[in-house]
Amino acid sequence: MLVKWIRLTVVDRRGFERGQRKWAGLLGEPGFRGQGGGWSRGRPGVAHLVAFWESRAFYDSFMARSHDRLAASQVGTYKDAQVRLFEHEFDVKVGFRPSFGDVDVLRLAHCQVRQDRVDHFMLMQEKVWNPAMAGSPGMQRGMLGRAPGEEFLVLSMWQSAAERGKYRPERVERLALRAQIAADVRAIAGDVVQLEPSWTV
Q1: Which of 27, 13, 193, 9 is nearest to 103 (CA)?
Q2: Which structural domain range is residue 148 located in?
Q3: Into how many domains does the chain fold?
Q4: Residue 14 maps to which CATH number?
C-alpha cells in the first residue's frame, strides 16, 4: 500500500474547504483506498491530508489522468505544500485499514533515520513502540511507512483528543530512551491533527 502525506499552509480557509469537497471524485479511481485530513492542533492554518492507494502504479495513473482536474478548485488557497510518498512497511497494532469514521485525531511522526541505524530503528518500532501504542486507550490503529532512503512516517489514529492525552510525555520519554531514538534519528517532526469529517473520502 502507498501512503501520500500532504502538509500545507492554508491562506484562504473558506475556499480551501470548499475545494476539499471536490476530492469526493477520488471514489471512482482504480486502486484508491481512502483519504482523510484536518487541521494541525499546534500550528494555526496548517492542514494535513493522508491518502492511501493500493500501489504506486495506481497512484501514478491517477496523477497522470485525474489529479489536476480535482486539484484545480484549490489553486491559490494554500502555499508551502509538501508532499511525501511512503510504502507501508508494517502495522502499528494489527489490522490497519485506511478508514477515518471511528477516529477524530491523527498523530504523525516524520523521522529521518541515520543510515547505519535503520535496522535498529525498525526493530525498536516493532518491539518497543508498537506494543506501547497498541496498549494505549483510544489508539485505534496505525502504520509505519518508508520512503526511499532513510525516511519514515509513523501514523497513528486515535479515538479522541482526551484519549490521546493519556499517552503521557514522561511515558513517551521512557520509551524513547529504551528505543535509543536519539541514536537512531537525525531529525523528527511531529504533529497532531484534528480530523475534519467532511474531508474524508
Answers
A1: 193
A2: 2-199
A3: 1
A4: 3.30.70.100
